[in-house]
Amino acid sequence: MNVHPWVWGLTVGVAVVFLVVDVFVIGRRPHEPSMKESGQHLAFFVATAVIFGLGVWFFAGGRYAGEFFAGWLTEYSLSVDNLFIFLIIMSKFGVPRQYQQSALLIGIILALVFRGVFILLGAVAINEFSWVFYIFGIFLIYTAVKLASERESDEEEFKENALIRFARTHLRATPDYHGTKLTIVQNGRRYITPMLLVLIALGTTDLVFALDSIPAIYGLTREPYLVLMANIFALMGLRQLFFLIGGLLQRLVYLSYGLAFLLAFIGVKLFLNALHENELPFINGGQPVGWAPVIPIWLSLTIIVGSLTVTAVASLAKTRRDDRAARPT
C-alpha cells in the first residue's frame, strides 16, 4: 500500500485537530456529558471510521479496506475492555463525575502516544526481523490464555503500581480534588492533587494494553498507516462510550472470553505468517514452510465480527436470565 506523505500528514493532522479542539473545550468546561451528547459524538466517530474504510476501499482496494475494518474492530473491542479498568480506576480514586471526562481525554491522548511509539517500533522490527512474528504470536496466545483464566473478582480489583505508590510516598498530596488541576500551591508549598494520581494510573494502564493491541493488529495488517488509523479511530470514541454505556459494560460478562478467543486466533494467524516467511535455521532448515495454511483477510474479518456478535448476544442473554432469577417470585 503506497501512502503518499501528504496523505499521512493530512489524516494525522485532522486527528490532532480533533484532539486539540476536544482538549480546549473540555479544559474550559469540564462536565458530565448527557446521553444525547455522548451518542452524537460516538455516532460521528463511528461514521467517520466507516467513511475512512470505504475511502481505503475506493483508493486502495478491498483487501486493504478489509484489513482496516478488521483492525479497527479488534482495537475497538480491546479498547472497550479498557473501559472496565477505567471504571475501576475512577471508582477507586473517587473521581467526581464532572471531572471524569477530562481525565479520560488525557488518558486517551497518552494511549495514542504510547501506541504510536509501539507502532513505529513494531514496523521497524517487522521490516528487519521476520521472526518477530513468532514472538508476537506466542505473546498473544499467552495473553489469551491468561485473559480467559482470570476470575471475575480479579477483573474488579485494581492494584496500585510502583509508580503510583512512589508518588503517594514521595510527593505531598491533597486529599481533595481541585477541579482538573494536577498540582496546587498551598501555604507556599507545591502539592499534587488526586487527579495526577488518576492520570498516572490511566497512563500506565494504557501502556500495558498497548503491549497487547499492537501485536494483535499487526497480525491483521502490516501497513503502519492502517495500524495507526485503526488505533486513532478506536480511541477517539472511547471517552463518549464510557459515559454512554457505562452500565452496559457490566453486562458484557463474556467479553473477556470473546477477547481471549480473538487474541488466540490472531496469535495463531501470526504464527502461520511467520512460518510462511521463516528464516530460523532450526525450523524447516531456515526455509519457508509451504504447507502452513494462509488465513485470508475476509475470513479474519468474518471471524472477528462473528465472535464479537456471539459474545455480546450471549452476555446480554445471561444477564437477562440472572435478572429474572433474582426477582422475587
The stretches of 5 or more residues where confidence is low (pLDDT under 50) are none
Structural class: mainly alpha
Question: What oligomeric state is this?
Answer: single chain
Span between N and C termini?
61 Å
Which radius of gyration do the C-alpha atoms yield? 21 Å
Write down how many β-strands occur, each being a DSSP E stretch of 2 or more residues: 2
Helix content: over 70%
- β-strand percent reads under 5%
| H/E element order | HHHHHHHEEHHHHHH
- Overall residue-averaged pLDDT value: 80
What's the shape? globular
Please give the domain count.
1
Q: Helical segment tally?
A: 13
Main sheet summary: 2 strands, antiparallel
Spatial sequence of strands, sheet with the most strands:
1-2
Short structural description:
Helix content is 74%, strand content 2%. The chain is built from 13 helices and 2 strands; from the N terminus they run αααααααββαααααα.
